[in-house]
Amino acid sequence: MGLRDELESGRDAFGHLVRVWHERNGWSQRVLPALAECLELGRVHNSQLSNLRNRKLASPGPELFVALGRINQVLAAQPAAGLDPALEQRLQAVPDLLQALRQSALPLLGDDGMPLGPAQLFEIFVGLRQLPAAFDWRIAGPEAGGLSAALAELFTAGRPWRLCRDQLLEAYPPQKRQRRERFAAVMAGQRDYSAEELDAELPDLRRTLAALGALPERELSADQFLELLRSRARLWSDPGGAEAPEGLGEAIRRRLLAEAQAG
Predict the structure, then answer these.
(1) Is the domain of 173 the same as that of 207?
(2) Do 130 and 20 sit in the same domain of this protein?
């Protein structure tokens, strides 16, 4: 890979990382700039984050990586449940920011479990470091619809949504209303996840499967879970690989005849 290609790949990877970091935490684009300012960790602008996400910021200054890395290290130092009292105290003057972090404050961790600091983030941006495996699923936009359908079929076991609703919502870990409503809409077939949303949701969707009792979480890695969904999506999208599905009217008629004969 040439230098230009390496830099392009790095910008793409870093934009993906920033998008997924926000999606997994359910943050608005105002959270990181406000946190940097409140804790005096450097300056981060909304426009910088937007351009990073869309690969339009080719040469950000070093201060940006320093600020993001320091923010990430602060988040990684928080207890597993809740925020450190000292941090809570410093954020009292910014209630919206405090509430956002109380709901979710997941850091960016490397494959070794250590938080990514300024140097590691810069190395990702210039293509010298690979994304951590947990952030490198790279779901393509065109496949998101098929994966959403496969996910809904898997989680409901082909049953009507209304019969599974309470059990699925109880098993789904996130408590943020927006994410729960989105999950319910996908399960009911009312919408699909986007590629970015699936990237962010995958860890919690895997935990949902475990909470339902289908498979212990340790027996199905995130990569394996994604491949499972992809294989099921391929079956749905390739009727030639399996029996062609019958029409809806024919399926209803067959079921009515079967019930009449049984009665």
Answers:
(1) yes
(2) yes
Angle 150-230-163 (CA atoms, 0-180°, nearest 5)? 15
Task: Give residue-wise pLDDT tens across range 93-130.
Answer: 999 999 999 988 989 999 999 999 999 999 999 999 99
C-alpha torsion 60→61→66→68, nearest 10:
-30
pLDDT digits (tens, 9 = 90+) for 197-251: 888 788 889 889 999 988 887 777 777 888 899 999 988 776 554 455 567 677 7
Which residue type is seen at 96? D
What span, in angstroms and rounded, lies between the C-alpha atoms of 247 and 262?
23
Largest CA distance in the chain: 75
The pair of structure tokens assigned to 255 is: 């079921």
Q: Which of 108, 135, 162 is the last residue of a domain?
A: 135
Residue 255 lies in a domain: no
State the Cα–Cα distance between residues 186 and 219, nearest whole angstrom.
25
The answer to which of 2-6, 60-64, 150-154, 199-203 has the lowest mean pLDDT is 2-6
Considering the domain architecture, whether residues 146 and 130 belong to the same structural domain is answered as no
65 touches 113 (CB < 8 A): no
The 10 Å Cβ neighbour count of residue 102 is 12
Looking at 110, 135, 160, the residue that finishes a domain is 135
Q: For residue 220, what are the domain limits?
A: 141-244
Number of domains in the chain: 2
* 109 phi/psi in degrees, rounded to 5: -115, 140
Same domain, 15 and 96: yes
In a domain? residue 81: yes
pTM for the complete prediction?
0.65
Contacts of 132 (CB under 8 A, 6+ apart): 108, 109, 110, 111, 116
